[in-house]
Design a protein that fits this description.
heterotrimer, A alpha/beta, B alpha/beta, C mainly alpha, A: alpha/beta, 12 strands, B: alpha/beta, Rossmann fold, 8-stranded mixed beta sheet, 13 helices, globular
């Protein structure tokens, strides 16, 4: 078995509030192999973006890592001092966010930002970095890159900006990209361009990627494996085809079933009744039990760990208890 | 001769809405530039039969939300006209009995409910505005009934909007829209701010309500998969114009306009048939300075000189008789139906 | 039952929580409460009535504070040139100051909200005209306008009439000069609210513009108004004190804190420092505590800073 590039062990993130501590992420464990794309899906508030933020060390205060470990290439990165973490970001982990304007500095040309990133992290002088920056802009599909390199972020359209962000995230040749909803702000036709670009670049450079999105279509096309999150926990993780087509956990199955198909018209869409609980009122036992069509007594009392389920997927569901002992990560 | 009941619920005739986005006079003189006009909607015609759903799809900036606001009278048309059940919209809206028959559901469940009002007052606002019921007890009863109808509890009327999730707020929005017993609902991206499992709830609810109350919907969305689930007819918009208008199944099975075909090909493949997704190149141009001729020509693989020079009108597409399409390539029969539009 | 619920909800609210977490705010609230309480309850709790001529003893004039060797325990903070008890005079004076401040702010708020709502919601010419008036207004210093109004009223009316309405003139003069800051804030918030979908929903069913402004937009723009009003209260009290110090404010028969300071100023260099210093301290405490409360309110109501 290959050594994972990224390993997250029992990650727990807490938000202290005056009404008590909210547990935003609880016992989240997964790993990403070199060159692998892991999709992370779930509804808003399920904790998928927070998992990404914890990995790149950008949790919004007062949120803090309260337990567990994050290892990159076997080295712990969750307890690094700020200066070390800064070096790590860019050099070893690249980040892409939903809104490109949060990543780009409006006061500098895109070229200056690319060059600075490369000069900081790679053994290049500014002239070499500039040539490389033009190469990158061409690679991400910016027309007339040698002229556009001296443009400011606001002179690009939304789709083009996201391409610049991708170049910026990849230019220091990191081993891991954390992409949080990279296409959500874009139109459908632009989304397709950006996704295929991300996919081919990651493949060519052998970069691993953690792709956080609520768009199952994007995951289905891009990811190798997928983790489904619900109320701050991973409820299912497995190969993308297995999760999308025959999910083990009733929540993943419901989630996949509620996606309207473009290929045919259904009289009624499959729906999950109710809504995800707030972090302050997560029910005992399995957090999904009040909405689950297959709920039984044990679900209301004991919290299930991830355990082997259908087709080699792991699911946190008591339906699979008899298939083996709960797996502790 | 049309029978009275075959009058469309709503009809737009070459309707357009332009916005003046010029800079202030002094700056304009200093920069020596003229007025800048944004043609948000630039001459579109469609009709919605009673009891059916017409959807408008397109990417951001194509003018679909402006159409929604034109047909409920939030904007007046720059030219052309909107006809509501056989009557000019401006005239109809002057009459509170006609106004009562149309309502709207909005995209953002966080901005569409007044945060300082209790839910029961939000839902009761149209009842009070139209004087449908006078006594407080009857209003309370009606609000409770409406909340039940959209899957909430009558007790929820006491609460404020912030106590609800996005999906529940959208239900409140629907209850408010239904409270005046409307016949025509304009739905502007009603599910695009919601999670997918909640989206399914809302779409199912809207379908149930249509079946039960005989509602007519104008449904605005950017999501083709959602549109397929709810529509009887679908119009595809690009840069303020309709480029294709057809019965839903026809449109999805045999899309004719190159833009419609490109949109379909851009949808991620969830069923994993191994289909290679072929993205359409380029980006949507600015509606302030749209391309000449057919607005899609800079991105269109079928464009020729005629497309650059001449704006195509909506014509019946050959081979798909119910489809109206604005495309020279389709008209001339060089649209390669059945083949991939772009070579992979 | 219902009341207990309301109280429990208030104690559970975020506002109360942020209040109790800030010692400076709690301290200012206590000080402000003492100042306002002393002022409002002056007729009942003041040790003397400084306006009761019968009780005034000229013998008692210029008594230093009680802790001074020559002090009189009857007059804790000493007496002024006419033998009035300083503590009582300050309490009655604060009453006048707060009265002027409160009604001046009320006037500013009323004009400001009306103008801001109309400008923001109606837009176009209404907006342009109202905001230009506000701009012009902002180029004149408050004191100048107040002096001007006072001067005009003085010239136009006989002296007795003027003394009778002097209080209202000061309120009007201060109130009229502060409305643009309210108008601008309300206009800004109104521009944001106007485009929200709940306003569109009301427009679609044909709710009138006036009704939308009052019942939909107004409740959603009041937060910032409350903050500015609190900060403005301190400002209005100061403006009144300045005017009274210059002798154009309230008449000496109804001395405010500013009047007391002016009167005391004449004796400052002859050694009777307490006549001006104590009203001065009272003024500082009142304005400072009110402003600190306003600052806290601004931060507590701003979700970005929370």
């Amino acid at each position: 078995m290959t050594v994972p590039l990224l390993e997250v062990r029992n990650l727990r993130v807490e938000f202290p509030t005056r009404r008590g501590t909210l547990v935003a992420l609880d016992d989240v464990s997964f790993s990403i192999a070199p060159g692998e794309v892991l999709g992370v899906v779930g509804e808003s508030g399920a904790g998928k973006s927070m998992t990404g933020a914890a990995i790149i060390g950008l949790l919004e205060p007062p949120g803090r890592i309260a337990g567990g470990q994050i290892l990159l290439n076997g080295r712990r990165i969750d307890n690094l001092p700020y200066s070390e973490l800064r070096k790590l970001r860019g050099r070893e982990i690249g980040a892409i966010f939903q809104d490109p304007l949060t990543t780009l500095n409006p006061l500098y040309t895109v070229g200056a930002q690319l060059i600075e990133t490369m000069v900081t992290h790679l053994p290049l002088n500014p002239a070499q970095a500039r040539a490389k920056a033009i190469e990158w802009l061409e690679l991400v599909g910016i027309p007339a890159a040698s002229q556009r390199i001296d443009s400011y972020p606001h002179e690009f359209s939304g789709g083009m900006r996201q391409r610049v962000v991708i170049a910026l995230a990849l230019c220091a040749e990191p081993k891991l990209i954390v992409a949080d909803e990279p296409t959500t702000a874009l139109d459908v036709s632009i989304q397709a361009q950006v996704i295929s670009l991300l996919k081919s670049l990651a493949r060519d450079k052998g970069t691993s990627m953690m792709l956080v999105t609520h768009d199952m279509g994007v995951i289905a096309e891009t990811a190798d494996r997928v983790a489904v999150m619900y109320a701050g926990r991973i409820v299912e993780i497995g190969a993308v085809r297995n999760v999308v087509q025959q999910a083990s956990h009733p929540y993943s199955a419901g989630l996949m079933g509620s996606i309207p198909p473009v290929g045919r018209r259904l009289e009624r869409l499959q729906q999950i009744d109710g809504s995800m609980p707030r972090l302050s009122s997560i029910p005992p036992g399995c957090a999904y039990n009040p909405r689950c069509p297959k709920v039984f007594d044990r679900c209301r009392v004991d919290r299930p760990e991830l355990m082997p389920a259908k087709d080699g997927n792991l699911a946190a569901c008591w339906l699979y208890a008899e298939q083996g002992v709960p797996r502790h990560a | 001769m049309r029978k009275p009941d075959s009058t469309p619920m709503l009809e737009t005739i070459d309707v357009a809405r332009h916005f003046d986005v010029s800079r202030p006079l002094v700056q304009r003189l200093l920069a020596r530039e003229g007025r800048r006009v944004l043609r948000a909607v630039d001459g579109i015609s469609f009709a919605i039969e009673k009891g059916t759903t017409l959807s408008l799809v397109g990417e951001s900036g194509c003018g679909k939300s402006t159409v929604a606001r034109l047909v409920v009278g939030l904007y007046g048309p720059t030219h052309g006209s909107v006809v509501f059940d056989g009557q000019d919209l401006a005239q109809a809206r002057a009459n509170s009995e006609q106004r009562r028959r149309m309502q709207m559901i909005f995209q953002d469940p966080y901005a569409s409910l007044n945060p300082r009002w209790r839910v029961r007052d939000i839902v009761a606002e149209p009842i009070r505005a139209f004087g449908l019921t006078q006594s407080a007890a009857e209003i309370d009863a009606r609000v409770g009934e409406l909340l039940t109808q959209v899957g909430l509890s009558p007790l929820d009327g006491q609460k404020f909007p912030h106590e609800f999730s996005g999906g529940q707020r959208q239900r409140i929005s629907i209850a408010r829209a239904l409270s005046s017993n409307p016949e025509f609902l304009v739905c502007d991206e009603p599910t695009s701010a919601l999670d997918v499992s909640v989206q399914a709830q809302i779409l199912n609810l809207m379908k149930d309500l249509q079946a039960r109350l005989g509602l007519t919907y104008l449904f605005i969305s950017h999501n083709l998969a959602v549109v397929r689930q709810v529509s009887d007819r679908v119009g595809v918009m690009y840069l303020g114009r309709l480029v294709e208008l057809a019965p839903a199944e026809t449109l999805f099975n045999t899309p004719r306009h190159p833009y419609t075909r490109a949109l379909m090909e851009a949808i991620p493949d969830l069923e994993m048939t191994g289909r290679q997704r072929i993205p359409v190149g380029g980006e949507v141009p600015s509606p302030i300075d749209p391309p000449s001729g057919c607005p899609f020509h800079p991105r269109c693989p079928l464009a020729n000189d005629r497309c650059i020079a001449e704006r195509p009108e909506m014509i019946t597409a050959r081979g798909t008789a119910e489809t109206l399409v604005a495309c020279h390539a389709v008209e001339e029969g060089r649209d390669r139906v059945g083949e991939p539009l772009i070579a992979a | 039952m219902a009341q207990a619920n309301v109280i429990r909800r208030a104690l559970d609210s975020d506002l109360w929580y942020s209040f109790t977490r800030s010692p400076i705010t709690v301290a200012s609230a206590i000080v402000a409460l003492i100042c306002v309480g002393g002022a409002v309850l002056a007729p009942w709790i003041a040790p003397h009535n400084p306006f009761d001529l019968a009780s005034l003893q000229l013998m008692d004039a210029f008594k230093p504070p009680a802790w001074d060797a020559d002090g009189d325990p009857n007059y804790v903070l000493g007496t002024d040139d006419q033998g009035r008890d300083m503590l009582s005079a300050i309490m009655y004076g604060a009453r006048v100051s707060l009265l002027v401040g409160f009604f001046a702010v009320l006037l500013s708020v009323s004009i400001g909200i009306t103008a801001g709502l109309a400008a923001g919601y109606l837009g176009g010419t209404v907006d342009a005209v109202l905001m230009r008036i506000a701009d012009i207004k902002l180029t004149f210093p408050t004191i100048l306008i107040a002096l001007l109004i006072d001067g005009v009223v003085r010239a136009a009316l006989p002296r007795e009439t003027h003394d009778q309405i002097a209080l209202y003139v000061v309120i009007f003069a201060i109130g009229i000069s502060n409305w643009p800051s309210f108008a601008r804030t309300v206009r800004g918030s109104t521009l944001v609210e106007r485009n929200k979908e709940y306003v569109q929903a009301a427009r679609i069913i044909g709710v009138s513009r006036a009704r939308i402004m009052v019942s939909h937009v107004l409740p959603n723009v009041l937060g910032p108004v409350l903050v500015i009003a609190t900060l403005n209260l301190g400002f209005a009290v100061l403006a009144e004190a300045t005017l009274s110090f210059l002798g154009v404010g309230v008449p000496p028969t109804q001395p405010s804190l500013g009047t007391l300071i002016r009167i005391g100023n004449d004796f400052l260099f002859s050694g009777e420092w307490w006549i001006t210093i104590f009203p001065g301290i009272a003024l500082i405490l009142l304005v400072l505590s009110v402003n600190l409360l306003g600052d806290w309110l601004r931060d507590a109501l701003n979700p970005k800073l929370r």
